[in-house]
Structures are given as C-alpha cells and as structure tokens.
Amino acid sequence: MKLASPEGEGPAVIGSRESLVARGSRESLVVRESRKAIVNPARAARATIVAAAAAEAVAVAIAVADGPIEGVEAVVLVVPVARAAAVAVEVMVPARGKVAVEAAAAVEARGSRAPRGSKPAVPVRQRRERSRSRSVVEPLRLALVVQRYGDDVNGGAEYHCRLIAEHLGKQHRVEVLTSCAKDYITWRNEHPPGVSKVNGIPVRRFKVKRPRDPDRFGRLSQKVLFGRHDEKDEIAWLEEQGPWSPALLKYVTKHQADYDYFIFFSYRYYHSYYGVAKVAPKAVLVPTAEKDEVIELDIFKNMFHLPRAIVYNSIEERAMIWSTTGNHKVKGDVVGVGSDVPEVKDSALFEASHGVSAPYMIYVGRVDQNKGCQTLFQFFGRYREETGSDLRLVLVGGKKMEIPDDPAIYYAGFVSDAEKWSAIAGASLLVIPSELESLSMVTLEAWAAGKPVLANGKCDVLKGQCRRSNAGLYFEDYYEFREALLQLESDPELRSGLGRNGRKYFDEHYRWDVLEAKYNRLLEGLRVEDQSRPQPSPPGLLARWFGA
C-alpha cells in the first residue's frame, strides 16, 4: 500500500497497519483499529501517525532509544481524544541506537548498536574492567561544598553530594564543608558548628549568620524571576536564598591551600556563587541545574565560565547550560550519580509493613506541587474513573502539600532504604510527574530494580533518559498519561522489556565503578595540567627581607 507523504515529499512505503519501516525522512501510517503501532526506526524519520475517521484522534508517547525491547523497536500509543474526525500528529522516531541532542553544535550519540563503519563495541564486562583500572589515581585532598549535609537528608543535591563524598572517600582525602542547617526553608542552625563525621566522612559545619525570611524571599523571587529588576535585586535574592554563611566562605578562602580541589554542589546557592569565584582555579562545579527562570538570571551567566571543570548530571542539563551561558569551552563531563542497589529486593517487606499489595505504581520523593504531584493526583483520579482500573498509587517521601482523601492513594511517608527498595520491587512502575529535574535519582533506582518509568515529557532530562534507555514512556498531557499508563498496566511483556532495558542502561552508565572512574579521570586531568604549569619563582633574598 502506498500513501502520499506530507508536504509532497514523495510516496511513503508502508507495511501492515501494525508496522512501518521508515525508508525516507518522513513516513505515514494509518491506524484504523489497533491502539498500538510497532515502529521499526531503521533510520531517523519523522513519522506522521494518522487516525482514520472511524477511529480516534491521535496524540503520541514513544519509548525509543539505544536498544530494542524484545520484539519491539518503538511503541506508538494512539490516544482517544475524539471519534469524530481524522487527525494527524507528527512524532519523531529516532534512529535505532542514536538520539541526537543539539547543544552548541555538539551531538551526543548513544547506542547499543554501532553505526556501519564504526569500531566494534567494547563488551560491557571489558568496559567495566577498564573503568576499574582507570579509577586508580593518586589520592587528592578534596573539599565538597554543599548547602546542608547529613544522613537524614534523603534527596536532592545534598543526597547526591553525600553519595559522591562517600564513594570518592574510598580513594581520596575527602572533607565536606557545609552549614549548620537542617531545614532548607529557613536555614535555621540546628547542627553544632565544628567537625564531626557522617558515615566516616569528616564534615565541617559553619553557622548560618541569618536565617531566611520566607516572606522577603517570596517577594524577591516574584520580582527577580517574573518582574523588572537589576543585578542588585538578583544579589539580594541570592543572599536571601542562602544559606547565608560568611564563615564558610571565609574558611574556603583562607584554607584553599589545604585542598587540591573544591567540588561545589548546586549553582544557585550562596556558597557556590561566591565560593567558585573565590577559588576558581581549584573549583569544580556540579550545577544540578533545572530548566527554570533561575538559570536565566544575569548573575549566573559569568559564573559558569569560572570553574576549572563542570560535572553535569545529564546531556540535557549540559545542553541547556551551554545554550544559556555559552560556556562550552569549560572542561567537563556528563557523569550523574549512582545508587547503592541491594542485591536482594524483597517486595514482601513493604507489603507486610504497610499492608499494600500489588498492583500499584509508586512515586518516590517529596510530595510537593513543585514536583508535579497536584497534576499526578488529578490525572490518576481521572484515569481510575474513566478506565475502572484497580491500580493504586503509593507515595514514599516527605509531604509539603495535602494528599487527596482517596482510598486508591496510600501515603507511606519516610521509610527505610530497605522498605523503599521493597516498595519499588513490588510496584508495576514508577511515575515521575516533575517538569524540573537535572537527573532524577529515583528514576535510575527504578531502572536498577528492573522497573519501567512513566515520566513527564515536559522535562527534557526525563524525556531524554527515557529515549536513551528505552526503559520508559512519557506524557505531556492527560490523554498521553492515560494511554501510556493503560498500555503499561495491561501489557506485562512491555513492562518486563522496558524494565530489562532499564537495568542494562543503569549497569552501563550508573554503576559506581563507572561514575568513580569518570570523576577520577576528570580530577586526574586537572592535576596533570597543574603539574605541567610553570611554578612561580620563589622571592629573592631582599624581597623576603623587606616584603618587596
């Protein structure tokens, strides 16, 4: 069967209604009855999925990327929006084994299948052995600088910093510099100042001179992020953002000779903005940046040009920072963070502790409007009402908003690591409704546990991770959410295939030996550069005598 391609680009070669082999840059596929079309992206193509008049209008969520699910190259979901007329929606079908991300004319290629003419792929086991051998480097004195720190902080950049500190601490002399605060809303001093140890890592804490005034911070945020303002307003916002600890910065400046490098976490906080500038030749920045209004502030444009190196969480975060600040000449790498995955994940533990049995999907993280939870509650309630599904929603983590009084929603609150892994193991899938993520550690944990992910496609990072891993579906509105969730709930083979892809993706990119090797290569490169630079001559005798 042949159909005319859109925009007069010539005929499209079509297979059966279940499959399409993309032979040109654009193809068309008529979907008459089946809700699911299997697409084989033999090369990069833009497919137009067309619903016949008797069928339903179309929106699309696609699972694509490095490697195929067993028997499935990509899943195109036909979303019932209207039955009255035919509607065509264009969707990208990325090439097998390759997803291109545009970032200052750079293209990052990922893929389990090497393109024709390329070098043979190195086996995973061999790559891991190489990673281990490369991770043996000369021990360095490292200071990790972060806004708050402790084993009671179980998410965000602070948890990210703790994991990196504990793993780099196996090979280097690591110390953490942080505030005395526990609460990120007020930055109240709750820890005593001075040096203590957390999981064997020395932690040096400094008092916050002034806690945050939430009302003033709210007014400044409204002005700086959404109104007319100047640089003075942005600095006032930054200092109210906090945690405002001049003592920490004074220590960094005075003791910079005591450390080889300072690794600053989270660009948007007081300690990073001023700290990176004070020790720029020794500064490594882990931005944990999100695509929001803060990254557009003028005060941060120059900041991203100052550090010796930048450790990005994802390809999309790097692309955003490059396009926003033009700092692509600064040395850096896409690294991210791993997770300590238990060998055994007993799903019965969570069920016994909380009385929750399958089937359920799980959300892990702060229950907060800023994390997309209001949208999740609305979509999930409507989904159950329209489909009659008996799927439940389990929430694990802290709570910053009201949770609907719905017997289908279970709030577990904070749980132990063992219970968290048990809850993930018992879930059908993980849902991530946030539009703002620089990595999403819990997404990686779900894949480590072999679980598929349903993510908010408005977040470039989550969408990119789903595409590269071929381990998740994503949505941008309710209709895509409904059809993607319906597909995942009703198709155990699809869930299993996506889960296997997720586990493979985690093993190849986020095992600790891989991540430690990336950090060590970056730090070793800086050390070699420093050693090769000519050292200034010592002052002469007269200069030493008279201070000239």
Report on this structure.
With 548 residues, the chain is an alpha/beta fold. The chain has 17 helices and 25 strands. The strands form 6 sheets. Strands 14-15-13-12-16-17-18-19 form an 8-stranded mixed sheet, sandwiched between helices. A 6-stranded parallel sheet has the order 22-21-20-23-24-25, with helices on both faces. The longest helix is centred in the C-terminal third of the chain and has 21 residues. The chain starts with a strand and ends with a helix.
Reported for the largest beta sheet, the result is: 8 strands, mixed
- Average residue-wise pLDDT: 77
Q: What class, by secondary structure content?
A: alpha/beta
**Proportion of strand residues:** 15-25%
Q: Nearest-angstrom radius of gyration?
A: 25 Å
Categorize the overall geometry: globular
What's the arrangement of strands in the largest beta sheet? 14-15-13-12-16-17-18-19
Low-confidence stretches: 1-135
Helix content: 25-40%
In DSSP terms (H or I, runs of 4 or more residues), the helix count works out at 17
Number of DSSP-assigned strands: 25
End-to-end separation in angstroms reads 88 Å
In short:
By secondary structure, the chain is an alpha/beta fold. The chain contains 17 helices and 25 strands.
